[in-house]
């Protein structure tokens, strides 16, 4: 049963990316909107940092966490199909900014953020986790030597 749902999830996610890819082809791309998408990457990462870091600040009174947890969860917050589906659900031909449909702008910006997330964050999350593991092991070794 688990394999069935995993295959279904993979198929639907691939279908969604195919549909969004076909949608992107029909949109008027400009360097300004792509640049705006690239500017939104740090904004999205900062929002993720706040949404992950705030509960950690509250709950660290009650339990201990690895000092790299917030960094890993912030960087590892990969975005994808759901964000694209929500952006595509924005009604088109309703609101325009400087002659561009807000629907098109939001889909392109979201697509840029998702592509960055998949390529850059996806390829660098494992080394970040490995560095965190190494730092924890070094800390444990130093503490065991000090005792």
Uncertain segments: none
The averaged pLDDT comes out at 87
Shape: elongated
How many strands?
Answer: 2
Major sheet: 2 strands, antiparallel
Provide the gyration radius in Å: 20 Å
Number of helices: 5
Return the structural class: mainly alpha
Strand percent estimate:
under 5%
First-last Cα distance: 50 Å
What topology, given as strand order, has the largest sheet? 1-2
What order do the SSEs take from the amino end to the carboxyl end, as H and E? HHHHEEH
Percent in helix: over 70%
What does this protein look like?
The protein is an all-alpha fold and 147 residues long. The chain is built from five helices and two strands. The chain has a two-stranded antiparallel sheet. A hairpin with a 2-residue loop joins strand 1 (96-97) and strand 2. Helix 1 (2-25) crosses helix 4 (81-88) and helix 4 (81-88) packs antiparallel against helix 5. The longest helix is centred in the C-terminal third of the chain and has 45 residues, at 102-146.
Element layout with pairings:
Blueprint: H1 2-25, H2 31-59, H3 69-75, H4 81-88, E1 96-97, E2 100-101, H5 102-146
Antiparallel strand pairs: 1-2
Helix pairs in contact: 1-4, 2-3, 2-5, 4-5
Describe the structure concisely for a colleague.
α1 (2-25) crosses α4 (81-88), α2 (31-59) packs antiparallel against α3 and α2 (31-59) crosses α5 (102-146).
């Amino acid at each position: 049963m688990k394999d069935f749902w995993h295959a279904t999830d993979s198929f639907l996610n691939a279908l969604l990316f195919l549909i969004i890819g076909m949608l992107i082809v029909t949109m008027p791309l400009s360097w300004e909107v792509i640049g705006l998408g690239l500017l939104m990457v740090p904004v999205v990462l900062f929002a993720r940092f706040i949404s992950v870091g705030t509960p950690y600040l509250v709950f660290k009174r009650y339990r201990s966490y690895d000092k790299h947890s917030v960094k890993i969860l912030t960087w590892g917050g990969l975005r994808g199909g759901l964000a694209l589906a929500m952006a595509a659900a924005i009604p088109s031909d309703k609101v325009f900014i400087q002659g561009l449909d807000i629907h098109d702008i939001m889909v392109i910006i979201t697509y840029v953020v998702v592509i960055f997330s998949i390529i850059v964050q996806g390829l660098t999350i494992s080394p970040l986790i490995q560095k965190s593991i190494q730092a924890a092991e070094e800390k444990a070794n130093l503490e065991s030597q000090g005792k």
